[in-house]
Specification:
This protein is mostly helical. The protein has helices at residues 2-46, 51-75, 85-103. The chain has one domain.
């Protein structure tokens, strides 16, 4: 009977771990969907969709899928991380603006 208990305990641990992963990922995805909802409500209130805002709306698909893929990588002990591309783009844009203003050699 001890072997059956060991298998049962192992299955419970895996299920508990999986449920924690699902809960964490679900909370993260809810935050992203809330941000998208806010953005769409703002667009509806203004009644205008600029190309830049359209790009932002479209970016949510990549943002959501990258979080899911990063979590899958982690579950399979693969190296990977979710990066906030918006922050990287902002940093690059600020650097480029500084260079065009004569600040870079």
């Amino acid at each position: 009977m001890a072997l059956g208990c060991d298998i049962d305990t192992s299955i419970r641990r895996r299920l508990y771990s999986t449920q924690n992963v699902i809960n964490r990922l679900q909370a993260t995805l809810h935050q992203e969907f809330d941000a998208l909802d806010d953005l769409l409500r703002g667009i509806a209130a203004v009644g205008e969709l600029t190309p830049r805002t359209n790009d932002l709306v479209l970016s949510f698909g990549e943002r959501l899928s990258s979080r899911i893929i990063a979590e899958a990588f982690e579950q399979h002990d693969l190296q990977g991380a979710h990066d906030r591309c918006a922050e990287l783009h902002r940093d690059r844009r600020e650097l480029r603006q500084g260079c065009t203003a004569g600040g870079c050699d």
